[in-house]
Every structure is written in C-alpha cells, then in structure tokens.
From TrEMBL:
Taxonomy of the source species: Eukaryota, Viridiplantae, Streptophyta, Embryophyta, Tracheophyta
Keyword Ion transport in record: no
Enzyme class, spelled out: transferase
Protein name as it appears in the record: non-specific serine/threonine protein kinase
Family, as annotated: Belongs to the protein kinase superfamily. Ser/Thr protein kinase family.
Domain annotation Protein kinase: ranges: 583-868
InterPro entries for the chain: Kinase-like_dom_sf, Leu-rich_rpt, LRR_dom_sf, LRR_N_plant-typ, Prot_kinase_dom, Protein_kinase_ATP_BS, Ser-Thr/Tyr_kinase_cat_dom, Ser/Thr_kinase_AS
Chain sites annotated for binding ATP: 611
Biased composition, class Low complexity, residue ranges: 813-823
Catalysed conversion reaction: L-seryl-[protein] + ATP = O-phospho-L-seryl-[protein] + ADP + H(+); L-threonyl-[protein] + ATP = O-phospho-L-threonyl-[protein] + ADP + H(+)
Enzyme Commission number(s) from the entry: 2.7.11.1
GO cellular component: membrane
An example molecular function term from Gene Ontology annotations: ATP binding
Region of interest (Disordered), ranges: 813-845
Protein species of origin: Turnera subulata
C-alpha cells in the first residue's frame, strides 16, 4: 500500500502538479517517508517481530506494540518479544515517539545509535536486559523531556557521558550491571554533570567498573535522591561529606568498593535511611554514630579496618533493626543483650570479632530472631535462655571447649527452608516439558518467567511466609492477573547481597499469554510501574524468553488477557490513613472482635467504610489473600460491595461501600425505613405456610456453588434489600471439604433474638400464646448451620413445622406433610440446641456496625498496629 502511494505521488510530481500540506507533517505521517520508513526498516532489520507486523501496511491500526496518535507513532513497546538484530539509526525517524521499551530482548545487540538523540519528545527509554554494547551516546543528553532512563543489564562500556546532566526532568537513572568505567561526572564551567539532576530520585550505578573518588560536588541539599546504589564498583577515596546533606535518602549502598578514610560524621543526618551497607571497603577510624537513624532496618559494616572499640551505643537503640551485620571487625568487650530484644530483629551476624566474657541474650528475645552467628570471637561462657530456641553459632569461641558436643559449637545446617509457593493442592500433578503447574488452577501452561532481584530488602529472613504472601498478592493485584496465579521459588541472597527470587506468572485462561499481555507486563516491570511491598526495596527484573507458539496472535475473548480483581483495588496504608484523618476517633463508626471500622473519604470523593484489623486478630497472608479473592468475586445488590483492601506495613484492612441507612438491627426495627423485604421474609419464615419455602432457602443458602474454574459466585437475585450490618461476614472456601461456607457471623443481642417474635405474621401471632415460638427459632438456627450435614433436610423442616403448629393448636391440613417425623429429626442430630451468635462483641452506636464487617480471623501476627 505504502509503495503504491509513493509511486502515485511521484507520478503526480513528475507531471508538474504541486501540493501543499497544511496540517500533517510529512516527516511524521505514517504514509509519508519518516515514520513508515523507520518502522519498515526496523521490521526488516529485526527478526521475530510480532506476526501482525507482516499482515498489514498500517502500523497504527494493526501492529502489536505500536501506539499512535493522529497517525503518528507515540509509543513502541516490545518487551520480551524475542527480537534479534540491532537498533538501527532509522529509529530516529520516529520523531513523535514518547515511550520506547525494548526491554528483555537479549538478542538485540550492537551499539546504541546516536540517532536516539533525535527523539526530542521521548519521555521513557527502557533498554534493560538487552545485549547492547559500546559507549552510551552523548546525544542522549539532548532528550530534554526524558524522565525515565533504564540501560541496566547490558554490556555497555566506556564512561558515563556528562551530557546526561542536561536531563533536567530525569527522576530514574539506572546504568547498573554494565562494564562502565571512569569517574562519575560532575559539572564544570563548560560541561554538564550528574550533580545537576535535582529531580532524580534514583542513582543506580551498581555492578560496573567505575573508578576514582565519589565527587563531593555530586550531592547537595537540593537533591531528592532516595536510592544511591554504587555497590560493586572500583571507587576509591573517602565517602563525601555532601552525602549527609541528602536527607531524603532511604537506601545507601557503597559496599564492595575500595573506599577509605573515616565515615563523615554528618552521615547521622540521614534519618530516613532504611538500609546502610558500607561493607567490603577500606574504611578506617571510629564506627559511625547511627543512633539517630530510628527507622534503620539493615546495617552492614563488615570487612573494613575500623579502630577497635566496644559495641557502639546504637547496638541497643535502633528499634526498627531487622539485620545487623559486622563481620571481620574489631569489636571487643561484652555484647549487650539489648540487641537481641528488638521487636523486628531477625539476624545478628558478628563473626570474626573479639567479643569476650559472658554471652547473655536476656529474657526478652525478639520473637522474629532466627539466627545469631558469633563464630570466632572470645566468648568464654554463655547464659542460655529458654526464650531463644533458634540457631546460635559459637564455633571458634573458648566456650566451645566445654560445650563441644552441643549444636552451638558445630556448624549447623538451618532446618527451615526458604519460602516457595506451594503446589500441595495440586496433588503431585506433573506437566510436559516447558510447561509448569499453576498454583491457582493446577493446570499446565506456559508462564511468563524471570528473576526478580531486590537490591536492598529491609530483611534477611527468607522463610517469612507473610512477607512472601504479601509479595505474591501485590504482583497479581498490581499486574492485573488472576488471583493466585503467581509462583515464587527459591529465594536466596546472592554474592551481591541481593535477594534473588524466581518468578512465574500464569495466564488466566488457556496455556499462553498473548503478545499484548506480555508487552504490558514486561513494561510494568521494566518501567517500575509495579511497586513491591516496601520491605523488598528497589528491584529489577530480568525476563526469560517467552515461548510464543508459531504464528499465534490471538485477540478478543480468547486473548488470554487477565481480568481486573473484580473491581477490588489495592490501597496503600498512607492513602487510607489520610482518608480517615490518621484513623481519628471522630471517624470511628464501629468496633468488634476483629478491630475497628472507620468512615473514610477517598481522593475521588467516595465515602467508604474501612475495617482495620487489630493485633491478635490478623490472619496469615495466605488466608487474607484467599478472603479477598472470594469477597471480590461476590456480587449482589443486597450485599455491601468490597471496594478494595490494604495489606502492607503490617496492616490488614478491607474497604467497603459506606451504607448511610443504618444497621440491620435498626432496619429490622423499622428505624431506617428500609429492609422491608427482610421483614417480610422473616415473618413468613416464622409463621405461615409460605414460610416453608423460605426455611428451605435458609437450609440451602442462596448461593450457586461454583466449580474451581469459575470466577464469580452468584447469589439469589430474589433478595431485594441491601444488608448494611454485614450480609457477608464469612465466605471462605474449604478445599478439604469441597464446599463454600455461608455462615453469617456477627452479634445478635437478646432483644433482637426475642424481638423476632414481633415481626411474625400477625395472623399467627394473634391466635394467642404461641408456645412453640422458641422451637421455631431453634429450627431456624439449625437451618443456617455451617456444615450441610448439620442442616435439616427439606422434608424434616416441613414435618418439624407441622409438629410445632399442631402443638400450638393450629390446623396444618393444608400444608404438605413429610414422611419423616419430628422424633426422627430430633434423634438424628444433637439434642443440644445452641445459639450460633452466642459470642457477643462490644459495639458502638453508630451508622455502620463493626459487626457489619466481622469475619472469622484469629491468626496471631506480630506486625505493628501503628507503623510509621
């Protein structure tokens, strides 16, 4: 098509006919020169381009990975497409390009063309995980609109171009894992430098061959950096004092260099620091004072030449510390027991020092502590405590001459295994080669796989189930995948001290993702659109090649696209905290055994009810994830809808629609003027012939039991009044029993229990003293037993009602009798009649009851209730 148009216009020009173009720039129009020619050239140079590129001449209509606006290409996203070839200079013809993502195509090789500098509108440039080599072109400094630059995990060499300092809008700069050499450039009177990047939040230069000192002029108080990752280079000289002026810093990694001299005293100004790693350098002088860094989680000062000293004061004053590492140091004297008592401490690694005297871990050892390694010190005696039963290593200490036969004095293999997503529910099923088993559906498919590298996690314990469950949940929520379609395997800390995790993402339907889905997920991971839970810190992802079937490009219903989480969204802790004015008492509208319920207003003006779990009533991560999956798939006009949830910073919160019409109790008593249909249903259920039908519904709850592949749970559409005082407080799947439980929890007070008599059918109630009323209630309660085996059959219900009415002197000849007798019914089940709501929970007199959001929990969790 393009060729024929070109010949047509050539013929017209040859004939002497002239044209003027008023709106479309010929250099950018798809059908004129530049854009079409550039894309056609790229298609000719690259192998394995998407099949749709070969079926049409119009890139803006049919080509996968191409986004256009007004017939101009504005985005090219081809992550993980298996592209082979080079990035030719023709890319410069895409002058309206704003986003270019070629990540995770390791067979894209050769140099980076200087014509990338022609893309003046480019905002995002991602070439991570490719095979590019050679220098970073100076021309990248011409991209004035660039905010995100990721060139990590290639084979780039040469120096960091000073021209990058001209990128005044840049906030993400990742040059890690290349072969870059030379110094870190700063500006001079004639050249730009990286110190000019005042909007940058990320300097990721780790794992290169950068040399020379870190320039003191690189940092200033005007900068907003949060991650400075310079580890794994050849940097020398002292740590610049200017670094202490960047008080926004959260992660500082300078380890595995050749830095020397004393640590600047103003480093203590970095009060927002979560991780400090200065290990494996040549630092001297006294240990730094870290006592002001109250939110510091991870400290590693190992393998330096600090002056000998006793344990510094901050060993006993950092309440957020999870990991303390100072191996091959010069620490001496007693080890303070306070270091073992921090509530979040997980590992204390202090081997090859000179601690001496008696080791006393104290009586208040932190519950999270997993490992204490004190090999090769001078500890002469140990005061053992029953408060600590996990790994303690004392090999190489004098005390082991007397305790040589104990576990403490032998190198121990830790018995706990790192977390991996369980496939236990799949019953040992296996898959053909290249396919894997989805932990959610237990079906074989081709997952999107790769490796997640967390460069500065705030923890060291890789057995923590709740942490990895939160990671799984954040992945399927934020990547818009099917709940449970995530597999995490074999986490470990590698030689770079990065947490390395194998990731597999499974399609929601069929065996394959389509190309559009792979491009989207790849971009979300390479562009850092996906953010993991805060504890995992900065990360990068390297994808494995995806095994697309030959000439397969599905679309429409069969595309394999993953649905949203049925309307439920992920809320950050800070977002919900803000919406409730810091969970103020004025916003509290209910309370219960689970926790408190708050009225909140979201940023878009929506009013919601937020149920916040209290310590002691939280579930495990897997249980909480399961409940969210189920609640998000239940849709009924009579039930408050789940708007979203929060599962971070040690919090579990559920966000529901806010019901302003009052509680169920108020509704049943007529105060709010709603729920009339519920009154009618209870009336006929408790006192008329039609009640047989409704008791049957109680005995067989109005839920269509779904099979394992179903995505929705549908409720009986005959219900008409929305239940504000919960309505769905427990709905959990029990895979071992193969059913869905529908027991409604909550508190039914005595006045409500006996107040039901007042809503009985008046034609029955007015007959006189209904002595069988209590038996009606007992029967109704048995009809809503959680287990189906404990609920009466329909024939038993019919006969029981007939018997009760006959005892009250009412003629039941018009009702349908059943063969089984009341005696049989009573004998077939326990004779002890119990009230299922016998566990009252204190409640506030408010518009929304805490019971409205109660469900069975009870998983003990040590997370903070009020995190920073």
């Amino acid at each position: 098509m393009a060729a024929s148009r070109l010949l047509f216009f050539l013929a017209l020009f040859t004939a002497g006919i002239s044209f003027s173009f008023s709106e479309t720039d010929p250099r950018d129009d798809v059908y004129f020169g530049g854009t079409a020619a550039a894309l056609q050239s790229l298609k000719d140079v690259w192998k394995n381009t998407p099949p749709t590129w070969h079926k049409s001449d119009d890139p803006c209509v049919d080509w996968e990975g191409v986004t256009c606006s007004n017939s101009r290409v504005t985005a090219l996203g081809l992550s993980t497409m298996g592209l082979k070839g080079q990035l030719s200079g023709d890319i410069g013809g895409l002058t309206e390009l704003r986003s270019l993502d070629l990540s995770y195509n390791p067979d894209l090789t050769g140099i980076l063309t200087p014509r990338l500098g022609d893309l003046q509108n480019l905002n995002i440039l991602i070439l991570a995980g490719c095979g590019f080599s050679g220098d970073i072109p100076d021309e990248l400094g011409n991209l004035a609109e660039l905010s995100f630059l990721a060139l990590n995990s290639n084979q780039l060499s040469g120096r960091i171009p000073p021209s990058l300092g001209k990128l005044s809008k840049l906030y993400w700069l990742d040059l890690a894992e290349n072969q870059l050499t030379g110094p870190i450039p700063v500006s001079t009177s004639t050249t730009p430098g990286l110190n000019q990047l005042l909007k940058a939040k990320h300097f990721h230069f780790n794992k290169n061959k950068l040399s020379g000192p870190i320039p003191d002029r690189l940092f200033s108080p005007d900068m907003v950096l949060i991650h400075v990752l310079f580890d794994g280079n050849r940097l020398t000289g002292e740590i610049p004092g200017s670094l202490g002026q960047v008080q926004t810093l959260e992660v500082l990694r300078l380890d595995r260099n050749a830095l020397s001299g004393e640590i600047p005293s103003n480093l203590s100004n970095l009060v927002n620091l979560n991780e400090l790693n200065l290990a494996n350098n040549k630092l001297t002088g006294p240990l730094p004072d870290l006592s002001q860094m109250k939110i510091l989680n991870y400290v590693d000062l190992s393998n330096n030449t600090f002056a000998p000293s006793t344990a510094p004061l901050w060993f006993s004053t950092l309440p957020s510390l999870t990991t303390l590492v100072m191996e091959h140091g010069a620490l001496e004297g007693p080890l303070p027991s306070r270091v073992f008592s921090f509530p979040q401490i997980q590992q204390v690694l202090l081997k090859n020092n000179a601690f001496n005297g008696t080791l006393n871990m104290g009586d208040s050892v932190g519950t999270e502590l997993q490992l204490v390694d004190l090999q090769n010190n001078q500890i002469s005696s140990v005061t053992l405590t029953t408060a600590y039963t996990n790994t303690l290593v004392l090999v190489g200490n004098p005390v082991c001459s007397a305790l040589s036969n104990t576990n403490y004095c032998q190198l121990q293999q830790r018995s706990t295994k790192p977390y991996s997503t369980s496939l236990a529910n799949c019953g040992g099923k296996t898959c053909p080669p290249e396919q894997k088993l989805s932990p959610q559906s237990c079906e074989c498919s081709f997952p999107y796989e790769g490796t997640l590298y967390f460069r500065a996690p705030s923890f060291k314990d890789i057995t923590n189930v709740n942490l990895f469950h939160s990671l799984e949940m954040s992945l399927w929520v934020k990547l818009e995948l099917t709940p449970g379609s995530i597999s995490l395997q074999n986490p470990f800390f590698n030689v770079d001290d990065y947490l390395q995790v194998q990731l597999a993402l499974f399609p929601s339907a069929g065996k394959y993702f389509n190309r559009t889905e792979i491009q989207r997920i790849g971009f979300d991971l390479s562009n850092q659109t996906y953010k993991p839970p805060k504890e995992f810190g900065p990360y990068y992802f390297i994808a494995s090649p995806y095994p697309f079937p030959a000439s397969w490009a599905p679309s429409g219903k069969d595309s394999g696209g993953a649905p949203q989480l049925k309307g439920a969204r992920w809320f950050s802790y800070d977002e919900l905290k803000k919406s409730t004015h810091n969970f103020s008492e004025n916003n509290e509208i209910g309370s219960g055994g689970y926790g408190k319920v708050y009225r909140g207003m979201l940023a878009d003006g929506q009013v919601v009810a937020i149920k916040r779990a209290q310590q002691g009533s939280m579930q495990g991560g897997l249980e909480f994830k399961t409940e969210i999956e189920l609640l998000s798939r239940v849709h009924h006009k009579n039930l408050v809808g789940l708007v979203g949830f929060c599962f971070e910073q040690g919090e579990q919160m559920l966000v529901y629609e806010f019901m302003a019409n009052g509680t169920l109790r108020e509704s049943l008593s007529g105060k709010s003027g709603i729920h009339l249909d519920w009154k009618r249903r209870l009336r006929v259920a408790l006192g008329s012939a039609r009640g047989l039908t409704y008791l049957h519904e109680l005995a067989n709850p109005p839920i269509i039991h779904r099979d394992v592949k179903s995505t929705n749970i549908l409720l009986d559409e005959n219900l008409t009044a929305k239940v504000a005082d919960f309505g769905l407080s427990k709905l959990v799947s029990d895979s071992s029993k193969g059913h869905v439980s529908t027991q409604v929890k909550g508190t039914l007070n005595d006045d409500e229990y006996y107040g039901l008599r007042e809503i009985m059918d008046t034609s029955i109630r007015n007959l006189g003293n209904l002595t069988g009323f209590g038996r009606f209630l007992d029967l109704a309660m048995q009809c809503v037993e959680e287990s189906a085996s404990d609920r009466p059959t329909m024939s038993e219900v019919v006969k029981a009602i007939e018997t009760i009415l006959q005892f009250d002197g009412i003629n039941t000849s018009s009702t349908t009798s059943a063969s089984s007798s009341a005696t049989d019914f009573g004998a077939s089940r326990s004779s002890t009649l119990r009230h299922p709501y016998s566990d009252p929970v204190p409640r506030k007199d408010a518009n929304v009851s805490a019971d409205a959001f109660d469900y069975s929990g009870g998983y003990s969790h040590s997370a903070k209730v009020e995190p920073k």
